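Design job #97: recover the sequence.
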């Protein structure tokens, strides 16, 4: 029996943590581990055991008291929750350095994501092949996606043109966008956008690094030795 749940009440951070749990469960299965406790999941992921249990509670009952969670069963349920128990066609727009690197990423197939097409607007790139995919002219994205039926797109294009690209993708049937461009997209309410900002993440790391150095510099020498 499949547990029904209200998708709208599931926090987005919970979905991100589910993906982390799934990665760990896959590693445990490869190591022939049959069951895992919430305490062990905390050790493996760094996510509090209580948070782990709360995240799962959005989707029904999991595990058995005193026994823990069956690795294979929990992995199977999370893949179904995240809808990666089936093939998901994905298209990528932008065949520059970043886009070309993403095309070769081996994790797509491991998570049932199949990169089915790469698009660009550069005449020099259209028609060339990267990782067995021929780069298509982005002007044809709406026509081609009628055949591909992709609902997820990855954007690896410059910020200056990313809004126009997003508009065309929405018109072609795309419902979810992973955006690597440093720009905020304006899309209809039923379109989901996830932004990936390398500089934002580096800035956060820089802050933490600088703050720790500052704390270390202000500590008395005796305290630094403790």
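Job complete. Output follows.
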């Amino acid at each position: 029996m499949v547990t029904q749940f209200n998708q709208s009440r599931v926090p987005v951070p919970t979905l991100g943590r589910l993906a982390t749990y799934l990665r760990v469960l896959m590693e445990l299965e490869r190591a022939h581990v049959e069951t895992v406790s919430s305490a062990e999941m905390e050790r493996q992921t760094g996510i509090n055991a209580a948070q782990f249990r709360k995240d799962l509670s959005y989707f029904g009952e999991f595990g058995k008291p005193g026994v823990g969670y069956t690795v294979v069963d929990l992995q199977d349920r999370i893949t179904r929750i995240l809808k990666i128990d089936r093939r998901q066609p994905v298209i990528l727009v932008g065949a520059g350095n970043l886009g070309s690197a993403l095309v070769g990423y081996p994790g797509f197939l491991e998570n049932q994501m199949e990169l089915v097409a790469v698009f660009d607007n550069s005449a020099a790139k259209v028609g060339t092949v990267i990782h067995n995919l021929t780069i298509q002219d982005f002007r044809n994205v709406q026509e081609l996606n009628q055949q591909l039926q992709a609902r997820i797109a990855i954007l690896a294009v410059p910020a200056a043109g990313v809004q126009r690209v997003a508009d065309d993708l929405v018109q072609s049937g795309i419902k979810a966008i992973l955006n690597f461009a440093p720009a905020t997209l304006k899309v209809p309410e039923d379109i989901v956008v996830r932004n990936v900002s390398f500089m934002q993440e580096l800035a956060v790391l820089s802050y933490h690094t600088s703050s720790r150095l500052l704390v270390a510099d202000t500590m008395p020498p005796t305290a630094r030795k403790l």
